[in-house]
Amino acid sequence: MFFHLLKKLIKFINQPVYINASIPPYLSIADLFCLTRKPREWLRGGVRFKTIGTVLSIFLFFNCSTFKTVSREQLNSLDIPERFEIKGVPFFEQEAYQCGPAVLAMALVWSGVRVMPDTVAPEVFTPSLKGSLQSAVIGAARRHGRVAYPISEMESMLKELASGHPVIVLQNLALSWIPKWHYSLAVGYDRTDNLIILHSGKTERKLLPFSVFERTWRRSKYWGLVVLPPDVLPATAEEGEYVSSIAGLERAQRWNDALAAYITALNKWPENYVAHIGMGNCYYYLGDLNAAEVVFRGIIFRFPNKGAGFNNLAQVLLEQGKYNEAFDTIQAAIRIDGAAVEQYQQTLEEIQIKRNR
């Protein structure tokens, strides 16, 4: 009985309230409490009214006790336009429990992939959970040939938006201990009025104060995602994180897209060893052994103290019928990188079998 009443109370404190024009009309009672810090009374249509009592105040207090706002100094320190909104981002109205498919479809269509929410829903929606896991959203983006790059702080999100990249964000619209998870797509911001612009639920261009948005986003540990074509680098890309994101395309066997993304990475970080290996692997799995050979020869020249390049080149040479050179190359890999000798030994055995025929 108590739990049932508690659920009703939480639903009440998170329902939208309609107040005067100075505060957007979609804020929940909990949001208003955190914004005003006046748990006993608020303005509604210009008329004061009392809260439902001490119990509600206690729940609201614990809902907001760790509330943290984005400071004006933080926002002003960013070298981005004062306000920016990405034009042409499609909007799909969310069906019940379908915020994940709807938001992912918006991001994918913006990036150039033709999909609809109902076509991506089977890839991300889990009926038993009545929602979509973050891992499913990431995996689906990769299966459609897009780099899914994580975002985990307000500054990074704003920089991506200022660069014209929509950001998928996961919010908790209820309490931290009884969550109501919800995906939205951030499409713009206004630092003058402290607003984030979202495609969210059934609302296109939902305007939300930075402080309220941060409170709901923080509960997901600032989980965010940009979904980009493989030839577009995130504005906040970090070398290791971006290359790891490309590896997900390989796992999805999107070889052409992974290849394009590795080339994008190497244009930015030409000495990244993993990206060179990834590019060679993509050519190999695409069946272009000549291109793979060129890449792997470049790797062993550039990185002579790393065994993986020698091993992969030996595999390519083996499949080209160059058995003697393949044998010498895998022997070099074993000498250089003893830690991976078991893997290299398998390549060596394959070469010896072919040589002895």
Question: What descriptors fit this protein?
Answer:
357 residues; alpha+beta; Cathepsin B, Chain A; Serine Threonine Protein Phosphatase 5, Tetratricopeptide repeat; 3 domains; seven-stranded antiparallel sheet; 16 helices
Nutshell version of this structure?
This protein is an alpha+beta fold. It has helices at about 1-15, 30-35, 55-65, 70-75, 100-110, 115-125, 135-145, 155-160, 210-220, 240-250, 255-270, 275-285, 290-300, 305-320, 325-335, 340-355; strands at about 40-45, 45-50, 85, 125, 130, 145-150, 165-170, 180-190, 195-200, 205-210, 225-230.
Describe the structure in your own words.
It is a single chain. The protein starts with a helix and ends with a helix. The protein is α+β, with helices and mostly antiparallel strands. The model is unreliable at 12-69 (pLDDT under 50). It has 16 helices and eleven strands. The strands form three sheets. Strands 3, 6, 7, 8, 9, 10 and 11 form a seven-stranded antiparallel β-sheet that branches. A two-stranded antiparallel sheet has the order 1-2. Strands 4-5 form a two-stranded antiparallel ribbon. Helix 14 runs parallel beside helix 16. It has helices at residues 2-13, 29-36, 54-64, 72-77, 99-111, 117-124, 134-143, 154-162, 210-218, 239-251, 255-268, 273-285, 289-302, 307-319, 323-336, 341-355, and strands at residues 41-44, 47-50, 83-85, 125-126, 131-132, 147-151, 167-172, 181-190, 195-200, 203-209, 224-228. It has three domains: 2-64, no CATH class; 72-228, Cysteine proteinases (Cathepsin B, Chain A), CATH 3.90.70.10; 239-355, Tetratricopeptide repeat domain (Serine Threonine Protein Phosphatase 5, Tetratricopeptide repeat), CATH 1.25.40.
